[in-house]
Amino acid sequence: MSRLRGADERTVREAMETGDPLPGTAGFAGEVDGHLVRDVLGRHPLCHEAADPGTWSFDRRDLADPVSLPAGVVRSLDSDADVDADSPARGDGDGPTWTLPNPDPYADPEAGLDAVRVAVTESVESVESDGLAVAFSGGVDSAVVAAGVPDAPCYVAGFEGSHDVAAAREAAAAMDRELRVVELTHDDLRETVPELVSVLGRTNPMDLQIALPLHLVARRAAEDGFDRLAVGQGADELFGGYAKVQKAPDDPRVAADTVRGAAREMVLTLPDQLERDVLALRAAGVEPVAPLLHDRVVEAALPLPGELLVDGETRKVALRETARAMVPESVAAADKKAVQYGTYAARELDRLARRAGFKRRMDDHVEKYVKSLVAEA
């Protein structure tokens, strides 16, 4: 097993020495010079035994009592040893070592648009297409990713009649792309939930509702012979794709008093989200490829002013402007639903819970149902 994923040792070592949080990678995690490392956005998960950082794995199922290495941390394999005091990248695991930059907004909005265009275009066009499929919802995020690999087949999952399947069909037709539909069933949910609980170490229904369609798309792609899956992860967080960002500061789900501040709050949620998504995809037999989370895109997106994130009812303004040169206008402008709702995964897991006797009047009725499936398995 490789001791480091996502980057070469020289690059990570230099980032440790300089404290550079965005050293030009798509994330990394592993062991370097007797230390565990995980990049500032946690794009590659890594766990170690709670009482022994020297025993670690990229897969929590390998460990008896796994805890996640926090994003941006350098931790000595010897729990009694300190990180080199002369290195800017210091930490004992109790706090971040690399900190996500918080730059001032672009003084010239056009410069911001240009930076995003260059970064996004370079990232999606640099993806190698060998052994690659694309997770495709019909939204602008996955469409931009798909545009960079025009020969890769696109996959969408959803229950019959779901928004994502309909949107993906429309977008694929507009882009003249091959689309393979993974039609979900109740049996898929019942059989897959216990596996994902084991993989993720989570029984939270929201996490499972998001992970289920990702995992099942990835599993079908793997069955079809693909070992890599391109995804649009990170676009909503970096470019202002959430309704709660659009409504800031009036939405109680965010603490920030500006759109830009609310978007940063969302970016800081990425480590937890990406651990879930990456583990779910790897467990299905594919390695995720997330070009919109490359350091160059992160660096271009962080200084975006509020008006390039949200403009009235339009979210992800800068990304959509970039997309207009890559995909049809109907796709660049398309709205999308969160995956758990767009695929009906949330609705149908709730329906299964109620059919099994876990009624909505019960506290946490879906999670109780999830735990019953785990117990039966």
Automatic annotation (TrEMBL):
Residues 1-16 have a biased composition (Basic and acidic residues). Residues 1-27, 78-104 are annotated as: Disordered. It holds the Pfam family Asn_synthase. Keywords: ATP-binding, Nucleotide-binding. Coiled coil: none annotated. Residues 118-249, 263-357 form the Asparagine synthetase domain. GO terms for molecular function: ATP binding. The keyword Ribosomal protein does not apply. InterPro entries: Asn_synthase, Asn_Synthetase, Rossmann-like_a/b/a_fold. PANTHER family: ASPARAGINE SYNTHETASE (PTHR11772), ASPARAGINE SYNTHETASE [GLUTAMINE-HYDROLYZING] (PTHR11772:SF2). This is Asparagine synthase C-terminal domain-containing protein. It comes from Halopelagius fulvigenes.
